[in-house]
Specification:
The protein has helices spanning 53-62, 64-74, and strands spanning 13-16, 26-29, 34-40, 45-51. The chain is an alpha+beta fold. Helices cover 27% and strands 28% of the residues. The strands form 2 sheets. It has a two-stranded antiparallel ribbon.
Length: 78
């Protein structure tokens, strides 16, 4: 399963630790993803989404129906 937010597209960031020596240790920042079940009143069913906190704020700001319409327009399966 991928570690990408379905709404915002946030994914793990990978890069080198900034060091002035020759050691190149890798670091990895993972997004704070949660699997949430959200009740959609217009469809009368539960929707399971993989969300980051920014995705939850987007749902609060725009509304779940608008966000689902954007996901379907992108071609994502819900």
């Amino acid at each position: 399963m991928s570690r990408v937010c379905q709404i915002t597209g946030k994914k793990p960031m990978l890069g080198n630790n900034v060091s002035h020596a020759n050691n190149k240790t890798r670091r990895r920042f993972l997004p704070n993803l949660q699997h949430r079940r959200i009740w959609v009143e217009s469809e009368n069913r539960w929707i399971s989404l993989r969300l980051s906190q920014a995705g939850l704020r987007t749902i609060d700001r725009k509304g779940i129906d608008t966000v689902l319409a954007e996901l379907r327009a992108r071609g994502d399966k819900i």
